Amino acid sequence: MSAVERSRKIIAPVIGLAVGAAIVWTVGWWWLAVPAALLVAAALWVMLAPEGTFDPRRAKTDAALAGMPEMFREEIRDAGERIKALRTLAYRFGTDPLRDTLLTITEHARAILDDVEHAPKDYPRMRKALTHYLKHVETIAGRLDYMARQGASDEAALTRSRATMGDLAAVFQRYRDRMLEDEAFDIDSRLTLLEQEIGAEQVAATRG
């Protein structure tokens, strides 16, 4: 159990009890003290919960990746958060072509992440895209956004960044294409196997 979780389990009930005790001490209303203590403890329990605790997608992802090493699961959770952050950053660029490029990257990254959640065994070969490349995209986009908000945008830097982002979008496209090709191959293999099984059953039925 993490230190944050331990603190949560201690702080919430202690403060709840303190509120209940304060009500009893000041006005003597036991009937109000108990529900008030429970309400305060429950509210603090929720407020102190780790980010994503009540996110159904996060729970589904954690369940799908339960058999993976913790390091991989943490990287995949980070990739999901990074994709959301990048989409927010993308819209800050308004009509600049960077916006569409960033959105394209997040779409490819989301598709890759969905595949990994569906088939965790694919993660090792998709890992570089979801860690190294995606982090690189976030760093560049974050710096450009900061410069724009400070009124220090450099057109030369923007031009170079547009080219770099375009290259990274192509990288993510290649990863996604490979993922789709592998999926198509898997479907073809399953269809072939199914056809063979049906053929064998027909032969057996004819002989019988």
The unreliable regions are none
Task: Tell how many strands the DSSP assignment holds.
Answer: 0
Strand percentage, roughly?
under 5%
Structural class, please?
Answer: mainly alpha
Span between termini: 62 Å
Q: What does this protein structure show overall?
A:
- This protein has 208 residues and is mainly alpha-helical.
- It has seven helices and no strands.
- It has helices at residues 3-27, 30-47, 56-64, 70-91, 97-118, 123-149, 155-207.
- The longest helix has 53 residues, at 155-207.
- The chain is flat.
- The chain starts with a helix and ends with a helix.
- The mean pLDDT is 79.
Give me some keywords for this one:
208 residues, 7 helices, mainly alpha, single chain, 85% helix
Summarize the structure.
The chain has seven helices and no strands. By secondary structure, the chain is mainly α.
